[in-house]
Amino acid sequence: MTKCIIHSNIKLCEGGDTVVEETIREIRKTEQEAEEITAHAKGQGTQLLEQTRQETEQAKAAMIEQAQEKAKAARETAQAAGERRLAEALESAEREIAEIRKTAKEKEEKAVQTVIASLV
Questions:
Q1: Where along the sequence do coiled-coil regions lie (predicted)?
Q2: Element (H or E) spanning 47, and its range?
């Protein structure tokens, strides 16, 4: 004969307490595994956030470097254009000065001839 006890809708028989203990152990084991999985997921989330932050910083640094390189190239291009214009302006000024000197020399010679002709 089997002795049975009915308690909270759980039928316990002799030796049934072992089944209940095993069930409780399995529940606790499952809860512990769930906690470990949760902790692991939190760790992965933190690691992923850190990795994303580092990648963002690297991308930001690369963009800043690229912008600085573009600015440097633009500055060098503008400087070269300014130097070309300055050289052209100096060249033009030198031609004008040479033309003025030539004209002045010709007028000086005419003036000297006019003075000599008027004295004679």
A1: 20-110
A2: helix 16-119
What is the amino acid identity at position 7?
Answer: H
Residue with the two structure tokens 């004679």: 120
Spatial contact of 2 and 14, defined as CB atoms under 8 Å apart: yes
Distance CA 101, CA 109 (A): 12
Structure tokens belonging to residue 71: 């600015």
Average pLDDT over residues 108-116: 90
What is the distance between the alpha carbons of residues 29 and 31, in angstroms, rounded to a whole number?
5
- Decide if pLDDT at 5 tops 60: no
Output DSSP code: residue 31: H
Compare 30 and 8 and report the one with higher pLDDT. Answer: 30
pLDDT band (50, 70, 90) for residue 15 = low
Question: DSSP letter at 11?
Answer: E
